[in-house]
Amino acid sequence: MINLEKLFQKDDEIYVAYSHFSQSIIIFFSLYITTIISKNTIFELFRLNLFLNSVFFYFTLLVFFFHIFFFFFF
Q1: Which burial class, exposed, middle or buried, applies to 4 when counting CB atoms under 10 A from its CB (0-12, 13-18, 19+)?
Q2: How far apart, in Å, do the first and last CA atoms of the chain sit?
Q3: What's the predicted TM-score (pTM) here?
Q4: Is residue 55 part of a domain?
Q5: What are the pLDDT digits (tens) for 52-70?
Q6: What gap in Å lies between CA 34 and CA 53, rounded to an integer?
Q7: Number of separate domains in the chain
Q8: 3-class SS string, the chain
Q9: For residue 67, is it within any domain?
């Protein structure tokens, strides 16, 4: 098992980048799941065309990229 505590003691930027990236991924997948489940069943989670044709597709991408953009530039 990787001892992350020793890795992050030397350089906190790695931890902050890892934390922010994992938050971005969680935001994206939670919005994806919410979009699919709002009008469909849980069995259709892996049908990407439902997500691409939904109303929230651009909103999800916008929120995801804003989150990453603000991490890199602020």
Answers
A1: exposed
A2: 33
A3: 0.73
A4: yes
A5: 998 889 999 999 889 888 8
A6: 14
A7: 1
A8: CCCHHHHHHHCHHHHHHHHHHHHHHHHHHHHHHHHHHHHCCHHHCCCHHHHHCCCCHHHHHHHHHHHHHHHHHC
A9: yes
